[in-house]
Design goal:
The chain has about 300 residues and is mainly α. The protein is about 60% helix and about 5% strand. The chain is built from twelve helices and five strands. The protein has helices spanning about 20-30, 35-45, 50-65, 100-110, 120-130, 145-170, 175-185, 190-205, 205-225, 230-240, 265-285, 290-300, and strands spanning about 10, 10-15, 35, 80, 85-90. Helix 4 (about 100-110) packs antiparallel against helix 5 (about 120-130) and helix 4 (about 100-110) packs across helix 6 (about 145-170). It starts with 7 loop residues before the first strand and ends with a helix.
Length: about 300
């Protein structure tokens, strides 16, 4: 759901009509609870009379159940659990969604103190931010979608912030620079990140890069808030300019050797990475398979 939405079954794109697709996306994004039919009808068809909105909802649910029908044994669980009063994503259904991967990583982040990210957790975060290449449901302008897009952008920022902190703590300088730069593309006036990048440039021996980063910080704060940088940022700039903080990276902690990871945990981590990579590769192959014009038409009409 990051960027242009795509629904696939067995690696093949499905063509789903626009309102049914909107309903599916809303249910997946709010999969933690069941929703009354009245709530869904009023949300997706706010301008229609209640009876007509409920009719549209029934039609969209029928389209989804037809498109998402699974062929399996007696124990096969459908994606949607639909009753006479409520609709939800079935908690035991088998499915994968990029938003779910990102939100699982962020829930993990909430339980980890700042600067205490393990290498295994950092790998999960790296995979999550790699999925956030575009905005949620890009080009959709529904009110509920805009709210979810803003929420997930904050999640993306927090994950990048944690990864930047982790890279600084492990003295992974180039990786920290990459994460910090990506974070600033999303939030150019984030002053703490400008300071992190200034320290990282200095630790790399690139004093010019550190001073230029300060200039970008000054410009961003002036444009967005009409404010000068904080005293802490100015003091860091002066130290870098005067050479009292240079390539020794006095403000960048040395990399601390972590405990040796047990073999079974290492194998679990590798297995998780292989599964995640296989999911991503399958998605990319499916999106590039077949007739591009037919797929584009299906997406646009869906």
């Amino acid at each position: 759901m990051f960027g242009r939405v795509a629904v696939l079954r067995g690696g093949e794109p499905l063509s789903i009509l626009s309102k049914a697709l909107e309903l599916l996306c809303y249910l997946v994004l709010h999969r933690e609870r069941a929703h009354t039919r009245e709530t869904l009808a009023g949300l997706l068809w706010p301008d229609a009379p209640p009876a007509q909105a409920r009719k549209y909802l029934r039609q969209s649910l029928w389209q989804l159940q037809t498109n998402l029908a699974v062929s399996g044994g007696p124990g096969t669980v459908p994606l949607l659990d639909v009753s006479a009063a409520r609709v939800r994503v079935h908690p035991e259904a088998s499915w994968w969604c990029d938003v779910d991967v990102v939100e699982r990583a962020h829930r993990l982040a909430r339980d980890v103190p700042a600067g205490a990210l393990s290498d295994r957790d950092a790998a999960a975060f790296e995979h999550a931010v790699a999925l956030c290449q575009d905005d949620l449901l890009d080009t959709w302008s529904q009110d509920w979608c805009v709210r979810e897009r803003d929420r997930l952008q904050l999640v993306h920022l927090d994950l990048l912030d944690r990864l930047t902190e982790h890279a600084v703590g492990r003295r992974l300088l180039r990786r920290g620079l990459a994460h910090g730069q990506r974070l600033l593309r999303l939030d150019p006036a984030r002053e703490v990140t400008h300071r992190q990048l200034m320290r990282l440039y200095a630790a790399c021996g690139d004093r010019t890069g550190a001073l230029r980063q300060y200039g970008r910080c000054v410009q961003a704060l002036a444009q967005e808030f009409d404010l000068p940088p904080a005293a802490e940022t100015v003091e860091l700039y002066r130290r870098i300019r005067d050479g009292s903080l240079g390539s020794t990276g006095a403000d960048v902690p040395p990399e601390l050797p972590g405990p040796r990871e047990p073999l079974d945990e290492r194998l679990d981590r590798i297995a998780d990475a292989v599964v995640a990579l296989r999911n991503d590769v399958g998605l990319l192959l499916a999106l590039h398979r077949g007739n591009p014009e037919e797929r584009r038409e299906a997406w646009e009409t869906g």
